[in-house]
Amino acid sequence: MSMKLSTEFAEKFYSEKALQDLVPEVEKAFATVKDHFKKGEDPIGWFSLPEDYDKEEFARIKTCAERIRKMCDVFVVIGIGGSYLGARAAIEFCQGVFHNQLRKDGPEIYFAGTSVDGDYLAELLQICEGKELCVNVISKSGTTTEPAIAFRVFRELIEKKYGKEEAKNRIFVTTDQKIKPGTLKEFATEEGYESFVVPGNIGGRFSVLTAVGLLPIAVSGADIDSMMRGAKEAKEEFADADFSANTCMQYAALRNLFYRQGKKFEMYAFYTPAMELMGEWLKQLYGESEGKDGKGIFPVSVIYSRDLHSLGQYVQQGERLMFETVLQIAHPKVKFDIPKSKANMDGLGYLEGRDMDFVNKNAFRGTALAHQDGGVATLVLELEKEDEANFGYMVYFFELACAISGYMLGVNPFNQPGVEAYKKNMFRLLGKPGYTN
Ligand code: PA5
Predict the structure, then answer these.
(1) 423 catalytic per annotation
(2) Given a cut of 80, is residue 63 above it in pLDDT?
(3) Ligand 1: distance of its center to the CA of 325 in Å?
(4) Which one of 12, 306, 320, 392 is most buried, by most CB atoms within 10 A?
């Protein structure tokens, strides 16, 4: 496995000297990650996770996933932010956008608790009608409003449909380990639900390779052993702080270099729709980790070539505020040929005998060249293929790069104090006890 970094379409925008000048800073930031991990100063448990995870719980996740796959038609995953994005990104990356329609050997998987929209819940309930159900509620704090509402709805549905005893076999809880009064863990224990742990030293957005992501991913039929192996490979590869050979450090340095030139936005671009949720996961990882103290690169994500027909105009000729990071897949899952046709009214005759990947890779090159001409640098990261091992590898790469980048920016990448601001207002407006004026 590898994450190749190409600067072919970015080199015009910086000097090698400026990059080399940043090396001591990147090394220092990487040393801070390691140091804070050793001292347990920040929640950096993800750093050693690919080697140092709870093997007993991992085995239980696999057994439980097998049981869920046999027992239900619909599996509802309830969580928000770091408690769902990684799982959804992994499932679409490994099993495809149409996994619910195409993978008939396991349940359909839906996500809830990601908004406070009643229409969404009502429609999801319609989908569940007449189907065998299981639910996994995921919340580290156990008190987040959006998933709490959805959990009420689905708990009630399951208890009504199966009775309280059978509900114990169909409701799975992933939350903090500590049993504190009024917490989800306490509730799960009282009700007799099988529960899994969000480790205390791993924050939500870094938790996809814990039970938070692994249970839903395993229920989708994806191979979580390979995923952990891929992450372990990345951990070993990037452990060495030799900048010249470490693409993770290089990526962290380059994005900070562009930021310091006034490029405040990073556009993550993907040429495969199965990576759309990867974009959402990256936006949370980088946005929540870096955007604080009046600083931070604002992460945006686009799917090309779709968004070349919408945002493309802005990227080409609008304000020069951004750089792009394209995440390429070297080898698609299938070779899909352009159909031959006697009629050539679409003018596609010149592509006959070619496959879609040929078109896709040239769309990428054409776009990167155009954006370069338009004053937008493009970094290219290339993974081999869309499978479990590559997903684990990619997750570790971006988590480590994010931690290094955050320390380079001079922020604490592991907290999110700003997230509380909207909650306080919302709770006051809703009249939650303790929040009224
Ligand atoms: O990264 C984070 O910590 C957050 O995005 C959380 O994952 C998100 O707010 C959900 O929190 P919880 O799992 O406590 O419900």
Answers:
(1) yes
(2) yes
(3) 26
(4) 392
